């Protein structure tokens, strides 16, 4: 085990652990934001640069600081490493710059975007963004396109995190979409006249950190904070059949994978619980699911609005007055 | 007359053929290395020579070789980076075109030193005619027993192949080159792991520039110590410089590192001075990615000392008053040239060539290009100049690979040294638009 200090908090982790995952072991606001890293997707990370942190001491053996900020999602920790995230002004400054870069072409269409309320860029913008923009040029625009009968691509909102490309590479048996062009004219697209129709293609929606890839069976039906997320399971031959069903009354509005607090699909029984397209798009009848109970949502999340789970510790404090 | 190690026989008629090259002492280093030296001996000679990578970064080649992991049962690869694409840099093309066997010879000796049995030359896609020349040289080397099985009866086997690139500047970055060679999109990899540990197909790999590999030939022939006697300080040996711009005699020159910049520009032996009797205004001494120098800092440092053509000499003063030797693309501007237009032109190149993987480079280079385009076309504001300076600060050091830095440095230096010219474009928009310096500004629509 190696010892690392992140924002003055010491943590012990396995050798080879990245700074980001060491920070996740501590939890809270010590954890750098990550738009492109996704622990369940091999090779992801290092691209968005939102997780850059300052390494004030490389290791006990070589305590020299690293001259540049490093990507915490791809830099392994060393014994005695000292990392600054929220305690570094340089990190905040650069994160604000990355936020500005990401928002150059991303429309602030949160009032109509289906990702509103669970958008990582929205959170990043809230914490690190500025009230105005310095970008005077014309923004790039695309028409929304169908990339499959159930998936809509809004390229305007895409921040090129590559997560969906990794899903296509690693989860589906034939890849028909990827990145075209380069530089600021790069775009996600399907190959000519192709559509994503693999059984697990719907997972590109779950990994998208913004609203670029949306579920056509759910688009514009409701804001997520009006829905009731319930853990549910079903008998499925293609996937584990464990999902979250988002309900309004007795009606299922959408089905997603079960995500952890970092917005990543959870591991269930040692396997990442990706869900198949049939569970996601076709099972919208309550009778098709075994509803297990309400999904616990972070109370700071907008999704938790008006959905109170009684915190027993708080209640006892209120009662005792301590 | 400067000593020449790489271009010594460049003017010999037919030197591109095996017979003529061999008659002029070609492939001696292969004979010497394979018959009398161990691979470790060759590495030691390269270390003793002090040779620094000629691709631009100037990292010591011998040290880079020493990092190569040597796990048992795993192949190692040597890749020659012939993806020369930086504006102003064309010296590798000249070397491969004129004397291709020097590169092939260098590849054999270097591969032997590194224990590689399969090596590749990754050539820029636009250099198709050069590819054919090098391909012919490789075929001749095979036919004469210098490549293939049991070279010269030494028991050493080497296969050498050419991989043509798709024409992307980013493929000159070593990990993007490896990705491209593997048949994937040429995007840089996140480091670590470094190629010396996990490179081509997950195996230990060394990537060296054409000129660096060619320089191994005289190092093995004459010894590393002899090579180290040439040059100055940590800048040993000779360097190919591709000189262009408003010079009387632009071209590719081999110089001994340590000569003065003044002699290089003004001596008749080299560039012959500034064309048409004009005055020099600025110089980019190491390819378009390095900071531009104004007239007063080209031949003298800020302290008034003669500036030298060496890694240290051109970097004297740091980024405030110095620049870099880089890849040796020496671009000179006379007094009539517009720095804003030139900066925009460079920025256009980097915005176009950014791979688009990381946000600061993808968005930042594009943003800078658009602001510079506005400034050049008389639509800029005074605050745009500071905005540019700030954007490039946010790109520098925050990207996956050095392309972000390469895009940021020229803009930062141009503003630092020629701010008044940027301001003139804001205060004189009509005059700025009327001028025509040959760049078709209508190629990209103004937005």
TrEMBL record, chain A:
Main location: membrane
Entry cofactors: [2Fe-2S] cluster; [4Fe-4S] cluster
Domain 2Fe-2S ferredoxin-type residues, every copy: 1-89
Cross-referenced SMART domains: NADH-G_4Fe-4S_3
InterPro entries: 2Fe-2S_ferredoxin-like_sf, 2Fe-2S_ferredoxin-type, NADH_UbQ_OxRdtase_ferredoxin, NADH_UbQ_OxRdtase_Gsu_4Fe4S-bd, Prok_molybdopt-oxidoreductase
A GO cellular-component term linked to this record: membrane
Keywords from the UniProt entry: 2Fe-2S, 4Fe-4S, Iron, Iron-sulfur, Membrane, Metal-binding, NAD, Translocase
Subcellular localization(s) per the UniProt record: Membrane
Pfam families (UniProt xref): Fer2_4, Fer4_Nqo3, NADH-G_4Fe-4S_3
One Gene Ontology term of the molecular function aspect: 4 iron, 4 sulfur cluster binding
Similarity remark: Belongs to the complex I 75 kDa subunit family.
This protein's name: NADH dehydrogenase subunit G
Organism of provenance: Fluviicola taffensis (strain DSM 16823 / NCIMB 13979 / RW262)
Automatic annotation (TrEMBL), chain B:
Listed EC numbers: 7.1.1.-
Pfam families: Complex1_51K, NADH_4Fe-4S
UniProt xrefs under SUPFAM superfamilies: Nqo1 FMN-binding domain-like (SSF142019), Nqo1 middle domain-like (SSF142984), Nqo1C-terminal domain-like (SSF140490)
Keywords for this protein: 4Fe-4S, Flavoprotein, FMN, Iron, Iron-sulfur, Metal-binding, NAD, Quinone, Translocase
Transmembrane segments: none
Biological role stated in the UniProt entry: NDH-1 shuttles electrons from NADH, via FMN and iron-sulfur (Fe-S) centers, to quinones in the respiratory chain.
Protein name (record): NADH-quinone oxidoreductase subunit F
Organism of derivation: Fluviicola taffensis (strain DSM 16823 / NCIMB 13979 / RW262)
Lineage, top ranks: Bacteria, Pseudomonadati, Bacteroidota, Flavobacteriia, Flavobacteriales
